Amino acid sequence: MPRVKRGVTKQRRHKSVLHQTKGHLGVRSRLYKRAHESLIHALMYAYAHRKQRKGDFRRLWITRINAAARQEGMTYSQLISGLKRAGIDLNRKMLADMAVNKPSDFSEVLSQARQAVSP
What we know:
single chain, 119 residues, 5 helices
């Protein structure tokens, strides 16, 4: 079996890891072993937080919808219930966008939901 010298491959891998950890504090961006640990954790956090971000945005949208609905004298739960009864399929992202950027359209949707809740 031939002998394998790993100089170039090892250097390339180390260089890649050090390049990816540029911006990490102190030794975490300078020494390979510490940088590799830092990179593994950073990639794990990035993966987990991509999933977490979806929940964060949903919470933000719900807060915005609730605030806009309360200005019109209706709660969030009443609004969502009314929309389902009225057969209006708008997701929370679109509702929140309407509440912030197009309040007149949001109030129209809200009035339809109000009619569906109390016929």
